[in-house]
Write a structure and sequence with these properties.
The chain has about 80 residues and is an alpha/beta fold. It has three helices and five strands. It has one domain (about 1-79): Response regulator (Rossmann fold, 3-Layer(aba) Sandwich), CATH 3.40.50.
């Protein structure tokens, strides 16, 4: 959380659920800072909550090509 608040970040990829802990508070910090992020999740878009329904999602399992496509979309969205 500290790094999300103050770190020098260009972009982040967040797993929605890490050992039962949701990453939405972390995503909110990044969103407030204007730092683009992508959710990586086996839940796909159905795992998103209000406030993040329009976030980019990288559905697991994903390929390197899919990762590249979603990162490119995040860069365009942030521009």
């Amino acid at each position: 959380m500290e790094f999300a608040r103050y770190g020098d970040l260009d972009m982040a990829i967040l797993d929605i659920n890490v050992h039962g802990v949701a990453s939405f508070p972390l995503a909110a910090i990044l969103q407030d800072r204007g730092i683009p992020f992508i959710f990586a999740s086996g839940y796909g878009e159905s795992g998103l909550i209000d406030g993040f329904r329009n976030a980019l999602v990288l559905t697991k399992p994903y390929s390197a090509d899919h990762l590249s496509q979603v990162v490119a979309k995040a860069r365009l969205k942030a521009a």
